[in-house]
């Protein structure tokens, strides 16, 4: 997903591409190797530092298609000057850029520089670039900045420390939140607390759906408790045992592989496979009950933009995406899910008294 651009690599990229004229010009001027500076102090940025860097990144984005202005923003004495300008040319491919974050990851001072130009910063630059064909590409790059000259806000970009290859975060069709079509087969789970109705997605997770349906039709889930419930998180069932006490395998004779889809998410109401790691699906399933989402995980997930917005709206657990197969979604009966999740539990999240059971699971045409 990401590629690390070391400073040494950045330099190696730059050198072969230099024209003879540039090399001669460079030789006549002092070329600074910011990579090898000795750090003296590291300290927390204050509001002024943050604003300066935000303003600098805003200028870099605004002027990305203007070589003359870009030249003013790049440290011309940097050993990786050419690579830095090439990086900015890459920004120019986007017709529009939305800056999500321009954050100082590290701020420090260096030796052998005077009081006006010894500040250095490593900056996390996260953005969404919109291409000519209307794709939205999210990238997180890390840039090296140096504050040069006598003007305390005269920041310059001297190099690329880490360059993200980019992830497509264009909007997707949120199919799991659509209502069932008339005649579509739905799943009805009758519990001691009430009825939960769900859509299943055999086109996106065929093995998970077939496994769940086959076990349910055999009555394997009947009179089974929700053995693990965590309020504001999820309710889990499917801990099936054979007569000898060993765990019942899936219908495929053992564990089966994950089925991830860019169209399905662990929103509140999602029906997903429980597992013990990659490709270990068997009989366990859970329903996401969390009414909120942790912003930290959204920031790390690079989700389609409308999926991220929907997480914020309805809740869920974004960090479970691409870890647990989503194969269905509740469209009626979330109040029942909430009731099951509210049970008192022990330290293992198992209900203490009169745990709520699944009475039966049926598959019927939707006629409402």
From TrEMBL:
Enzyme class per UniProt: isomerase
Residue stretches making up the PPIase cyclophilin-type domain: 185-353
Signal peptide positions on this chain: 1-26
UniProt GO MF annotations: peptidyl-prolyl cis-trans isomerase activity
Keywords: Isomerase, Rotamase, Signal
Pfam families for the chain: Pro_isomerase
EC number(s) on file: 5.2.1.8
Catalysed reaction, written as an equation: [protein]-peptidylproline (omega=180) = [protein]-peptidylproline (omega=0)
InterPro entries, per the entry: Cyclophilin-like_dom_sf, Cyclophilin-type_PPIase_dom, Cyclophilin_A-like
Reported function: PPIases accelerate the folding of proteins. It catalyzes the cis-trans isomerization of proline imidic peptide bonds in oligopeptides.
PANTHER family documented for this protein: PEPTIDYL-PROLYL CIS-TRANS ISOMERASE-RELATED, PEPTIDYLPROLYL ISOMERASE DOMAIN AND WD REPEAT-CONTAINING PROTEIN 1
Protein name: peptidylprolyl isomerase
Organism: Brevibacillus formosus
Organism lineage string: Bacteria, Bacillati, Bacillota, Bacilli, Bacillales
